[in-house]
Structure formats: C-alpha cells, structure tokens
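Researcher: I'd like a candidate sequence for this fold, 350 residues long. If you have to choose between options at a position, lean toward the conservative one.
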C-alpha cells in the first residue's frame, strides 16, 4: 500500500517547477503527476544551476533514489493544489524574487534592507522582527506569550528570532497569500490581549500597484540618467521605461494583490490604536529597481549609485514631496482601552 506521506523534497522540486516557465514547457507531463523526466533533469543539471542548487542539492541522493525506484506516477506524494493553476506567484517567493540567483526585487538588496530597517527601528541592523521583539518587551510582555505570524516569509524566517527569545509558549505561522476578508483587523483586535502588540510592515500605496503619474515620471527620468550596465534585466534586455503593471494580468496572476492597499491604514484605525508609525519608503525605489536590482550589488559604482538613490527617496519622503508606499506600524487593541474605560465609569451601575 502506498504511503500518503508528503515528502518535502518533492514539494520543493515542484515549487521550483511552478516558478519556471522553461521547465513547464520542457516537462508538461508534470501537471498530470508524471515527473520522471523532471527528476532526470534535476540529477543531470538542476543541481548545478544557481537558482536550484541551494534548495535541491541537499536532496541529491533522495532524488536519485526516487528516480530509480518509484513508478513514473508519483501523484500520491504531491499535496493537493500544488500543481493547480490557482496557486499564486507567492507560493515560492524566493524563486520569484531571485530567479537564477539574480535579484530582481528591490527589497532583496542588502543596502535596501538596511535602509528599510533604519526607517523603522532607527538602526540599519535592527530588522522588523527584532524591532517588534524590542517593542513587545518595552510594553511589559516577558513570558508565556503566544505569537501569530500572518504571511509566511521563506527568506527572512521571522519565526526563528521569536522562538529564540524564549518568551513564547506557542508560535503559529500562517500564509495569507490568497487574501483575507475585510474583517481581518476585527479578528486581530479580538485576538490581542490588553498587553498584546500587533506589528505590521506593509505596502499601503496605490491599489493594485497602479503607480501614480508622479511616480512614473520620476522613475523614468532617473532611468534615463542611469548607466546602461545598471539597467540590464534578467533576460539581458535593457530597461528604459517603467509602466504600471497590467491590471488584467496582475489580477490573473494574483487576485489578492493590493486590492485595497490605499485603505489599509484607515480600516486598521477603526479597530486598533496605533502606537508607532514609521514610513519605510519604496515609493521610488520599488518601481525604479524593479527587474534590475541585482545590478547594483555587482561593483562599488553600483553600490554608490544605490546609496544616492536611497538618499534621494529619503529626502523626498521626509520633505513630504512623495508619500511612503511602505510603512511599519505597531498597534494595540482598542477593546482593551474600552474595557478599562467601562470599568472606571462603572458600566451598568446607574
């Protein structure tokens, strides 16, 4: 009798398959559960390719054994929905952000990360997770805590630093890539204890990432000024122009992407009391570095250019000439304040 156990090496392989169009075209039979030839590709070349090596090499012997011993149809090892089209691009975010080892997403750059951390915490080496822990301790919460991380981060793994503090009896990590209902903040409010803290680093820019005219004008003006070798895309073409994401394609790829991002803060304020609000930028750097980010870590000149671009965005946002598309927020439940008020006023006592 076949085992129903789901093997992680198989999941990882199929996640990489789902993220690469070239593999999908080469091995279309995988969608039907037959990935004998895909396993052969892994063994012969996949383990040496930059985008696959780090995740797959550790399972080299397992893949060889799987190729030689199991039948062609391995569907019984595949989690339901893993091969279906309704998956979103975030199912393997690492491969989406850094295809073939080339960083295409602005936040994956080390200098950008330090800039973001400094905007939020005041220090370039204190990331969002460490800062959240610091705020939690400052709020007086020190032991027997419960933590819920909403939105998995396979690159940053924020659950690890939380675990290492020894403060938490329970840590739950969940993914909400397929979206969440409008009453999300109501659920957060009802879940927080009086001393509990909710922290969020989120995109609050234009809905569906439909960049403003001002953003596009400034981004494209800077693109014209950048040297050609810093505008090379992953496919070798040159990025000379940034446009708004195609709305129809964006919705098809991920229906949950930034549906009401402009309203996030206003809705949040209905249920939570904001105790800290920090703009973390991205208004300019996100569209400007889209697709070409990795070029700025190749040499010292690229690093200097990136530093200048970061400083430009910092000045524009600080001067209120541009809004901040990304923010870091810490908040408490409003219900705790309400309970305290009711007690003080003797609710129901006439």
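Model: Candidate sequence:
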């Amino acid at each position: 009798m076949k085992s129903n156990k789901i093997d992680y090496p198989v999941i990882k392989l199929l996640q990489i398959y789902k993220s690469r169009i070239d593999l999908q075209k080469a091995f279309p039979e995988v969608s039907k559960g037959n990935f004998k030839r895909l396993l052969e590709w892994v063994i012969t070349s996949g383990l040496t390719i930059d985008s696959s090596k780090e995740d797959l090499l550790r399972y080299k012997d397992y893949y060889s054994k799987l190729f030689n011993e199991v039948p062609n149809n391995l569907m019984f090892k595949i989690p339901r929905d893993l091969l279906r089209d309704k998956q979103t691009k975030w199912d393997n975010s690492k491969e989406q952000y850094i295809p073939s080892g080339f960083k295409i997403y602005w936040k994956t750059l080390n200098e950008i990360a330090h800039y973001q951390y400094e905007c939020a915490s005041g220090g370039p080496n204190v990331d969002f997770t460490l800062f959240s822990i610091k705020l939690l301790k400052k709020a007086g919460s020190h032991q027997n805590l419960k933590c819920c991380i909403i939105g998995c981060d396979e690159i940053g793994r924020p659950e690890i630093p939380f675990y290492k503090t020894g403060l938490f009896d329970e840590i739950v990590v969940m993914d909400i890539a397929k979206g969440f209902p409008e009453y999300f903040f109501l659920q957060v409010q009802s879940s927080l204890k009086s001393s509990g803290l909710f922290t969020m680093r989120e995109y609050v820019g234009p809905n569906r990432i439909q960049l403003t005219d001002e953003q596009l004008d400034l981004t494209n003006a800077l693109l014209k000024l950048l040297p050609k070798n810093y505008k090379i895309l992953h496919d070798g073409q040159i990025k000379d122009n940034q446009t708004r994401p195609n709305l129809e394609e964006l919705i098809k790829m991920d229906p949950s992407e930034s549906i009401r991002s402009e309203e996030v803060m206003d809705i949040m304020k209905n249920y939570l009391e904001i105790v800290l609000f920090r703009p973390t930028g991205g208004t300019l750097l996100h569209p400007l570095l889209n697709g070409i980010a990795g070029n700025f870590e190749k040499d010292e000149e690229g690093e200097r250019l990136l530093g200048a671009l970061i400083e430009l965005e910092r000045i524009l946002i600080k001067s209120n000439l541009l809004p901040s598309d990304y923010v870091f927020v810490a908040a408490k439940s409003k219900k705790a304040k309400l309970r305290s008020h009711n007690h003080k006023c003797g609710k129901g006592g006439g």
